[in-house]
């Protein structure tokens, strides 16, 4: 029986690999690619993945040392496994990114995020004002729920940045009211608004710095394409060829 290759922990039913006439423990798609790269699994090794076929198939029928062939995509989507295709990450709604989105380490914290792609036509709602924009965006924009993984280190870093952003915005508000209260003349209002604007913008910049959160690039037939996914995360996901 082939030895188990150390790989990230994915909560998947996975594949069963037959070596030396016996079925091994179940492995994830990522672990299986490690087995191939390490020479533990050959093209004639029998592999059983229930979502692909009822009977075991030779590994060469759907996987190569470079990655999975396109006919595994339905199975990956069914198991809600994110995968890389042509350098981009694809997934289904509700996917769990089990690695830290910053460094690729196993995630210890999960945060649910709704990713949204703005439809260009939604901007026409501005003709009717802010409410029109909100209504058009609700109708036309594409959305997907993603569970974002973070390790302890980067979760703590993100929390500190958000606290710093909050403190900066509060400072801007205090400066705004102080300028209104103590400055005299026609320029007091301009100075007050300038202080407030700088505080808010600085807070937003600090609060969003270093988050490395993925963005929704497209959503077609319930298959989402994510952008801004860090290379450290991509290299741990199954790669589909073609």
Architecture overview:
By secondary structure, the protein is of the alpha+beta class. Strand 3 and strand 4 (57-58) form a beta hairpin. The two termini are 31 Å apart. It has helices at residues 29-37, 73-78, 130-140, 152-182, 188-208, 231-234, and strands at residues 16-19, 22-23, 46-48, 57-58, 63-64, 67-68, 83-85, 88-91, 95-100, 109-117, 142-150, 215-220, 223-227, 239-240.
Structural class label: alpha+beta
Cα Rg: 24 Å
Provide the succession of SSEs: EEHEEEEHEEEEHEHHEEHE
Name the helicity range. Answer: 25-40%
Largest beta sheet: strand ordering = 12-13-8-7-14
**Beta fraction of the residues?**
15-25%
The outline comes out as elongated
**How is the biggest beta sheet arranged?**
5 strands, mixed
> Average pLDDT, to the nearest integer?
76
Which parts are unreliable, with pLDDT below 50 for 5 consecutive residues or more? Answer: 1-13
Enumerate how many helices there are, as a single number.
6
How far apart, in Å, are the first and last alpha carbons? Answer: 31 Å
**Count of distinct strands:** 14
């Amino acid at each position: 029986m082939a030895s188990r290759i150390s790989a990230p922990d994915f909560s998947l039913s996975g594949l069963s690999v037959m070596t030396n006439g016996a079925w091994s423990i179940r492995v994830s798609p990522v672990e299986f690619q490690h087995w191939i790269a390490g020479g533990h699994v050959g093209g004639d090794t029998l592999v059983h993945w229930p979502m692909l076929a009822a009977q075991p198939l030779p590994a060469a029928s759907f996987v190569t040392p470079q990655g999975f062939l396109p006919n595994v995509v339905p199975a990956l989507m069914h198991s809600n496994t994110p995968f890389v295709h042509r350098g981009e990450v694809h997934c289904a709604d509700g996917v769990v990114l089990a690695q830290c989105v910053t460094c690729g380490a196993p995630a210890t914290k999960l945060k649910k995020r709704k990713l949204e792609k703005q439809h260009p036509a939604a901007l026409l709602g501005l003709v009717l004002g802010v409410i029109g924009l909100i209504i058009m965006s609700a109708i036309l924009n594409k959305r997907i729920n993603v569970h974002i993984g973070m390790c302890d280190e980067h979760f703590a870093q993100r929390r500190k940045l958000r606290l710093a952003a909050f403190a900066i915005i509060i400072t801007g508000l205090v400066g705004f009211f102080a300028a209104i209260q103590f400055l005299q003349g026609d320029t007091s209002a301009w100075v007050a608004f300038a202080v407030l604007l700088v505080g808010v913008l600085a807070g937003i910049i600090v609060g969003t710095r270093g988050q490395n959160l993925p963005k929704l690039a497209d959503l077609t037939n319930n298959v989402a394409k994510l952008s801004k996914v860090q290379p450290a995360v991509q290299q741990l996901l199954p790669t589909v060829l073609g």
